[in-house]
Amino acid sequence: MTTDSRVRDGGGVTAPPPARPRRRGIGWAQRLEIAVLSGPAVLMFVGFVITPVLLAGYYGFYRWKGFGPPTNFVGFDNYVTILQDKLFHEALWHNAQIVVLSLVLQGPIALVFALLLNQKLRGQSIIRVLIFVPYVISEVIVGTAWALLLQTEGAVNGILRSIGLDGLAKDWLANPSIAIWTLMLILTWKYVGFAVILFLAGMQNIPEELSEAAAMDGASYWQTQWRITLPLLGPTIRIWGFLSIIGALQLFDLVYIIWGQYVASTAGTSTMATYMVSEGRNAGNYGYGNAVAVVLFFISMIIALVYQRFVLRRDTQGALTGGR
C-alpha cells in the first residue's frame, strides 16, 4: 500500500504539498567575513586562556624551579601532595565559606538597595555612584587601606576606644575566630555595588504596567516586589550568583594584600589562590604551583558546569538550542 503525499482540496483536486525552502549555504565571502571578525577574539582566547592552561598542565608533572626546560619528571606526585596537604584542605574550606557567605550576605543587601534605588528619590544618581565607587577602586588601594584601618592600633580600634567601647576593640586581622568575618565585611563593601547596578539594570526590563495592575488589584508594595519583581528578576539574580561563585573561588588579591602569605593561613583566610602562590612561586616550586592552578581550574570548571546544568539551564536552553 502506497501513501499519496498529495493534499486533496475541497473540490476533489489533489495538489502537491508546498515545497520546503532550501537552506542556502554560506558563501566564501561570508566565511571570510566571519573569520576576519572572530579571528582576533579566537586568537586572544587561545593565546591567553587555552595555551596557559595546557602549559600549566604540562609543568604540573615536573618539579620545576621556573627557569630552563623542566627535566625532573614526577608524574602525579604534585597532585597527590595537593590532595593530602592539610593546608590545601583548609584553603578549600575557606573558599567554600566565602562562596556561601558571599551569596547569603551580598545578595539580600544588594536586593534591598536595588529596590530602594529603583524608586524616585532625591539624589538617586549620587547614591548609585557612591554605592558603585568601591567596586571600581583598585584592589591594591582597598586592601592597603583596610589593612591600615583594621590593625591592632589602627583607626577602627582607636575610634572605639575614644568613645568608650574598649571591649569592642579586637585584633580584626589575626584572630582566627573573626578574621573570616572581617574578610566578608571587606568583600561585601567592595562588591555589593556591582550586584546593585546589575539588579537595577534587570529591573529596567520589567514593564511598569505589571506593578500598576497589581496596585489596582490591591497588592501592597512588598507583595508586588515578592510576586512580580523578584520572579522576573530571577535570570539576573542567577547570573549574578554565577559570577559571585566564580569570583569567590578565585579570590586572591585582597587576601594576599591584607593578610599576606603567612598570616592568611594562621588567621583562617587563606584561599586556593593564595596557597598556590605561597607553595608554588614563593617556595621556588613552580611545577607544584602549576599543579595547584590546574586543580583550581578544574574545580571552577566543574562547579560552573553544574551551575549551568541545574540553575542556568532554564535561562539558556531557549537561547542556545532555539527550543521553546
Topology (elements, then pairings):
Blueprint: E1 7-8, E2 14-15, H1 28-59, H2 77-84, H3 86-117, H4 124-136, H5 139-149, H6 155-162, H7 179-203, H8 208-216, H9 221-232, H10 234-249, H11 253-258, H12 260-267, H13 272-281, H14 286-310, H15 313-321
Antiparallel strand pairs: 1-2
Helix pairs in contact: 1-14, 3-7, 3-10, 3-13, 4-7, 8-9, 12-13, 13-14
Walkthrough of the structure:
With 324 residues, this protein is mainly alpha-helical. Helix content is 69%, strand content 1%. The chain has helices at residues 28-59, 77-84, 86-117, 124-136, 139-149, 155-162, 179-203, 208-216, 221-232, 234-249, 253-258, 260-267, 272-281, 286-310, 313-321, and strands at 7-8, 14-15. Strands 1-2 form a two-stranded antiparallel sheet. Helix 3 packs across helix 13. The protein starts with 6 loop residues before the first strand and ends with a helix. Residues 1-5 and 319-324 have low confidence and may be disordered.
Question: Tell me, what's the shape?
Answer: flat
Alpha-carbon Rg, integer: 28 Å
- Please give the count of helices: 15
Strand % is under 5%
What multimeric state do the chains show? Answer: single chain
Helix/strand-derived class? mainly alpha
Give the neighbour order of strands across the main sheet.
1-2
Average pLDDT, rounded to a whole number, is: 85
Bin the helical content.
55-70%
Written as H for each helix and E for each strand, in order along the chain, the element string is EEHHHHHHHHHHHHHHH
Please count the beta strands (DSSP E, at least 2 residues each).
Answer: 2
Report the major sheet: 2 strands, antiparallel
Terminal-residue CA separation: 37 Å
List low-confidence stretches. 1-5, 319-324
